[in-house]
């Protein structure tokens, strides 16, 4: 099965397009979590609490880039897979071909990845050519600085993010999606009009205050796509003084987001 076939089956099974972001910020992990690998201990409990509502888990590589982090990530990916949930690594890779080939090896372990198109097609080929893997190309990101470059006009009449979206559609062989932020609902709509068939990963609902309705209305192609929340789910239990209550809050937050998104599906 390809990533997008798996994802379609998972969306069906959970009735959910929620991507649960696994960004275990060491500075925010609860004090009661006394473990050898705290990020893994945290993620395991989050996965236990949220997997019924998770179409996908999206660990961001930035939260794992040290030796203990790599171990925590490996355990997390295996555990998510054990629960039947696909894993999308948010790594935003993009480098010259020789290096990109090394980066792409991570697709032996995870099901999909985010990539940065700035270096051009040859930097993305090692990911695009991976049988079965999903590749989400950054088009219009959710941060305020996205406008600095992505909204510039290139050629005669297109913004850079529109141009990237069109190129990504040309690369698509049933394996390509786009990253478009929920904080830019007008851009979401424009990109959807340009590329009706590509599923989007839409980050930025929750902590970034993005538009959940636009995320669903424009993010899904034939019902397939992902709307991500990380901090809004992971740290929903902050303030709870015991473990059970803390992680129940994460489960409740994932369920609430699923229910809210489903109003617009
Ligand atoms: O445009 C983008 C691309 C990626 N992200 C990532 O998604 C999550 C969002 O986390 P929240 O806590 O829900 O804000 C995080 O890993 C980002 O690096 C994004 O936000 N926007």
TrEMBL record:
SUPFAM superfamilies: Ribulose-phoshate binding barrel. Residues 17-246 form the Orotidine 5'-phosphate decarboxylase domain. Pathway: Pyrimidine metabolism; UMP biosynthesis via de novo pathway; UMP from orotate: step 2/2. Its EC number is 4.1.1.23. GO terms for molecular function: orotidine-5'-phosphate decarboxylase activity. It catalyses: orotidine 5'-phosphate + H(+) = UMP + CO2. It comes from the Archaea. The keyword Lyase applies. Pfam families: OMPdecase (PF00215). Keywords: Decarboxylase, Lyase, Pyrimidine biosynthesis. PANTHER family: OROTIDINE 5'-PHOSPHATE DECARBOXYLASE. Belongs to the OMP decarboxylase family. Type 2 subfamily. This is Orotidine 5'-phosphate decarboxylase. It comes from Halosegnis marinus.
